[in-house]
Write a structure and sequence with these properties.
The structure is a homotetramer.
Chain A: H1 8-13, H2 20-23, E1 28-32, E2 35-38, E3 43-46, H3 49-52, H4 61-72, H5 85-99, E4 107-110, H6 115-130, E5 135-138, H7 147-152, H8 156-160, E6 169-172, H9 183-192, E7 203-206, E8 209-210, E9 216-217, H10 220-232, E10 236-239, E11 264-267, E12 280-283, H11 303-316, H12 321-343, E13 348-352, E14 355-359, H13 363-375, E15 378-379, E16 381-383, E17 389-392, H14 400-417, H15 419-425
Parallel strand pairs in A: 3-15, 5-6, 5-7, 7-10
Antiparallel strand pairs in A: 1-2, 2-3, 4-12, 8-9, 11-12, 13-14, 14-17, 16-17
Helix pairs in contact in A: 4-11, 5-11, 12-14, 13-14
Amino acid sequence: MTDTAMTDIYTRRESEARSYCRSFPVTFKWAKNATLRDDEGREYTDFLAGCSSLNYGHNDDDMKAALLDHVSSDGLAHGLDMHTGVKARFLEAFEKIILEPRDMDYKFMFTGPTGTNAVEAAMKLARKTTGRETIVAFTNGFHGMTMGALAATGNAGKRAGGGMALSGVVRMPYEGAMDGVDSLALIREMLANPSSGIDAPAAFLIEPVQGEGGLNAASADFLRGLQELAREHGALVIMDDIQSGIGRTGPFFSFEGMGIQPDLIPLAKSLSGMGLPFAGLLIRPDLDVWKPAEHNGTFRGNNHAFVTARVALEKFWQDDAFQKQTEAKAAFLTERLQRIADMIPGASLKGRGMMQGVDVGCGEMAAAICATCFQHGLIIETSGAHDEVVKVLAPLTIPQDQFAKGLDVLEAAAQVHAPANKIAAE
Amino acid sequence: MTDTAMTDIYTRRESEARSYCRSFPVTFKWAKNATLRDDEGREYTDFLAGCSSLNYGHNDDDMKAALLDHVSSDGLAHGLDMHTGVKARFLEAFEKIILEPRDMDYKFMFTGPTGTNAVEAAMKLARKTTGRETIVAFTNGFHGMTMGALAATGNAGKRAGGGMALSGVVRMPYEGAMDGVDSLALIREMLANPSSGIDAPAAFLIEPVQGEGGLNAASADFLRGLQELAREHGALVIMDDIQSGIGRTGPFFSFEGMGIQPDLIPLAKSLSGMGLPFAGLLIRPDLDVWKPAEHNGTFRGNNHAFVTARVALEKFWQDDAFQKQTEAKAAFLTERLQRIADMIPGASLKGRGMMQGVDVGCGEMAAAICATCFQHGLIIETSGAHDEVVKVLAPLTIPQDQFAKGLDVLEAAAQVHAPANKIAAE
Amino acid sequence: MTDTAMTDIYTRRESEARSYCRSFPVTFKWAKNATLRDDEGREYTDFLAGCSSLNYGHNDDDMKAALLDHVSSDGLAHGLDMHTGVKARFLEAFEKIILEPRDMDYKFMFTGPTGTNAVEAAMKLARKTTGRETIVAFTNGFHGMTMGALAATGNAGKRAGGGMALSGVVRMPYEGAMDGVDSLALIREMLANPSSGIDAPAAFLIEPVQGEGGLNAASADFLRGLQELAREHGALVIMDDIQSGIGRTGPFFSFEGMGIQPDLIPLAKSLSGMGLPFAGLLIRPDLDVWKPAEHNGTFRGNNHAFVTARVALEKFWQDDAFQKQTEAKAAFLTERLQRIADMIPGASLKGRGMMQGVDVGCGEMAAAICATCFQHGLIIETSGAHDEVVKVLAPLTIPQDQFAKGLDVLEAAAQVHAPANKIAAE
Amino acid sequence: MTDTAMTDIYTRRESEARSYCRSFPVTFKWAKNATLRDDEGREYTDFLAGCSSLNYGHNDDDMKAALLDHVSSDGLAHGLDMHTGVKARFLEAFEKIILEPRDMDYKFMFTGPTGTNAVEAAMKLARKTTGRETIVAFTNGFHGMTMGALAATGNAGKRAGGGMALSGVVRMPYEGAMDGVDSLALIREMLANPSSGIDAPAAFLIEPVQGEGGLNAASADFLRGLQELAREHGALVIMDDIQSGIGRTGPFFSFEGMGIQPDLIPLAKSLSGMGLPFAGLLIRPDLDVWKPAEHNGTFRGNNHAFVTARVALEKFWQDDAFQKQTEAKAAFLTERLQRIADMIPGASLKGRGMMQGVDVGCGEMAAAICATCFQHGLIIETSGAHDEVVKVLAPLTIPQDQFAKGLDVLEAAAQVHAPANKIAAE
């Protein structure tokens, strides 16, 4: 039986919750950096990158070598939260390579290895330390699928999956989300008014760039204003850098250089470097009041991930070369996407860094563009409240020519579906 | 710097939430089956087994070989929920080796790779399909740390971590939890009385054996009674087999042979076979009404885990040899633990299969016994509402002589701390 | 148009929520003590007494005179919570006649004039003062229809009216509610077990006799045990004496002589003496931490009610004569109801004092008995989870011969519907 | 002992929740129309009118006569929800005098006699009929003190009284509440965005004029826009006319002539005409799906209130004379208040009809003005999030010269405390 024949097993046995496989109905077998190969030998360029979990591409040689070495020598795979050499080395590297140069002082909490778990830990800790319940989350925010994080997630379809009312969260418009509304001013007024009905918040929970919500990027002014407001009202700032962090926008954290010192920073996705499950929460030290095991999780000690995560830090973050490369690619991306946006009436550029896309105005067109791309060997997806944004999340390590060729495919697909051409073609 | 010196990094940088490392303050470096070795070369026998995540021991040679092969050949590590050959082969194996021989018909949902995520998916689906909110959970139940699952978790310390009230769950006594109370009869009466104030439940959420709650094992009669009650009241049965499943009590599922057909079965811990993060939810096919991505998760496609999980199924579950071996070991364990229980006034045997322990009556004594064990190279932990149960969770694959020696250490430690000897010693 | 003809207006304009008028489809025009007269001149004996709001009967001459005098002289009707002479005189009388002789020290809070409002105030204050959310309420409890009190109400139909999940309440079996279960022991065990999943409660909320729930009367031992448990766990006792208080069981409070000192006592129904809207909450002085208007209500200063309430206290509670009379009537009632219960296989006596009834085993028979009573000029209703209890709530002031005649009617009706006779009749 | 001496009883026995009596520390004894007299014979003009519960003034002679007649003749005082002649006559009058001429078709639900109870009934019914939980309420809204209504109330102090999180309500800015924000546009965008995190609402709950919230008056455009939005999204409109209704702004309902057809209208305060406890909910007939007693309340049959309420309808609403009078007084009030506002830098006029006031910019000044008024025999209070609005709520029936004199007192008090004069005086 070939792999292809086996896809039937999915219909028979995999839950209807499956999704990406519906857009890309082939069986993948091999992956390296930005290239995927299916079981029939066809190759694809990956502009999805595990939704930003593969910022360093697939199967980076150094991470792979370190992992093979660890497994070969019977290093621990699963260690609960017991001390292991590879865990210590990861923490050391994180301290020296990430925290110290940025003058950041945080404790690292190893949560269950999912982004939603890190967000839940942050929400719990914010409520526990402030004695308040309300978390202010934002329109189009995406924070996870478990009940605490889901309450903070904006998407109606996801929320409906909860099957019951979701509580503890108050919603405010993200920067620019509502026409003619200065979101920060609105939030400030709502909190200043003792009869507004908005209870004093435990925290603001915000993504610096909203990945699932449509590549909305908050400005430094907005984030700084929010931070000031939080401090004024005794609330914490939880900066969810799960999708936007680990180099995606250029620097390691997406909010670097903005004058932001978040109280809690959930991380996941590209944290392990190689796509292995790994999540964590950075905690301002004085807020680290957890009792032992007060929040725990069986897989919080994924030692394979510690190995690859350390290699990723050592390889990419010892100096600013990688950040500079990313910024150069991002500038190229902006230029190319602007050309595409210009092609489609009403379209606009969204996002920041290597997390950009084109809002084409409606989900149908965006879906059509992505489908055409896939026919031409490009894996790319949409985001946004109406799935109206074609989103480029290529590995940061993608070779420049492959990146350019991928964008050629995208541009061609956009051309096919741009309204003018559609009319001409009909 | 030696690994040992690096333990300091934990104090400096790891969150206070860390726990097991406090009981076992060494740095582990190497692990094979039931043996752990620290960075100074000392060896330990593992009676904790990643809290039942390492039912097949550490670094099983066949799983290891398959994983090395997959990684070496640049197989996908992270695949979101896209089709991959190794995923298909896992599903095929699960269907042929697990489902079909047991005449079980379920859809497999790949959730975020934590037990709590599988439980949340189950709770969401139960509420969504029944249109009801209330989940009946049980005293001493443990289901996870995210807000939905935490609401169903009994432990007061864990619950307090939530920082806000937990809703949607009604609590009933587990079988035998309350002296002189027939739990099933109580539940039946509560549900039969339209003025009891207990709303019609969406589901019962129960562990066949409560791992964290003190190794309480429900009888077949109790579980069957619950299932009947559920059907009578239009509720589902969610059988949380995360800790008790995957062979821990003998058969693959802990409830086999009891006449139980759960509607939803969350699985995790030993599912990957090698301790890699992996969780899933088995869904009665007609309940699989999820919309695509209605519950999703970035790491739901941990392909490394698919590889090792398949090997585990093929190696251990093609016939009943492994189950028989486990049952033989369990019988031996019962005998040895009974001897220990007999030593301590008021002590009693708890649990079932290779998930047994001794309730020594108080947490202080249990902790002292475990500490003494560790001094003699045995890693073992407690469970129960007062941490009063010394819990043996050895790998099922532990060699018989190592198992016996570990139990010798445990018996000796119990002897040291048994009240009579303590009095004699004072 | 006659009054009778006008009943049509109800169908046309009154909400379907109306209820008692469906059982007693006549138009009442006049009422005195235990007698009601309809607009066609037919007289009825009142064994419902406004669900215990008319413990002193309809239109007591002294209350009536005082009210007429107050209204005639343009005394304030509505005073918000401003000081008025009649309010002061009510408080003085309550202090001297009720509190001081019983050695009770409480503050009186004038809540909105509904029982549910007094209960809500109690629940709010218990949560506020303890910093805890969970209120333990009991099976078959009835505490009101607003969302806070409704959460504590057991009846499934009433709960369903809320249209959303009701939170903040944990349910325990009332004394004797579950066959073979020692409710107090169960509660004690649940609270003692730190992993039971029952959070530390703010309060126990209990009716000494459950009026709507089927005339279940708690023993002194049970209530005292609950009080001890509450103190041990830092919880308050809220004794809802709305239906059972103000003399209904004999003494002014239904729990007198039981060694109970509740922390909070909601009162309503017969508080005004004449059936006028009036409710209040007795608060243990050190718990009276309300800020001005923190809980308020427009009609909390119903001065007409203050006038009649004061007269009621002065007329009936200056000595123990009234209590003795009630006890004598209650003894007579017990005797007569026992005769009825003996007539019906499986029937049993329920309740205490002048709050007794017969559980006839099913709602249909109870309804049939009440309907037959009404045909013979007796107004009487059912209660209980299945409406299976025929409940006698006559005014305490009912003349002995009228009481006896009413019971004759009831006995005759029971005879008609007793199974043996039904069989004979068929 | 004189009444005055008795005020001590309040300190001793009345809960600290008492409020208005702190501003007006005298004992009232007699009241007629807009005049109150204390027990020392001093007279006061009432610009508070029971917070709009005494729109027809104190002890209207016709209502008083009808009530005396009813009581004298032993008409029922308390009737649960049984039919009585006076209830039928009230409903008949309400139908003929209020509903029919306005072409309004509603069922009348007699709720427990508090505004909060009518609001809770409305919220429950909205959730029950739509199957949705979220009620959209507004900044500065005030709807009551029981948990359901309190969730919709904006005031932080009141909310804190709940002692637990309040759920089921989402907050939006009232018209004009936030500088530079078009509230209606904001709400429209929030509801249109499927990822906004605002769940589809069961209802909008709004006061046409916010009494407690600072006399904010919504425009017809805003209310109509809201109604359109509600219909578009399958939500109901609950128009809380408790304080603004029954003639307070001129017409019987405050929203008359605005093109509004609310689905549910809670009424209370001046409904009985004489300040007696009485509340009700008007229900669009097809939404009247209550089961019998699904929402009930012991005092929902306050027959005394039915008597006076009917007289009020017959006396004041048979033609438009009363409305015209009110509008004339309101015009006079506007003129006088504008003069006061002009005196105080930054002050502005608030409200509509006979529900107007002056926002003097800060709570301290407003309190000082009210205190000075009281010294000169005028009872007047503040409202607003910061108690910054001096609010005139005179009886609609106040004689013109008394009204003018009261406003003279207010103007003089404002002059005393106006900043310029304060500076001059210092």
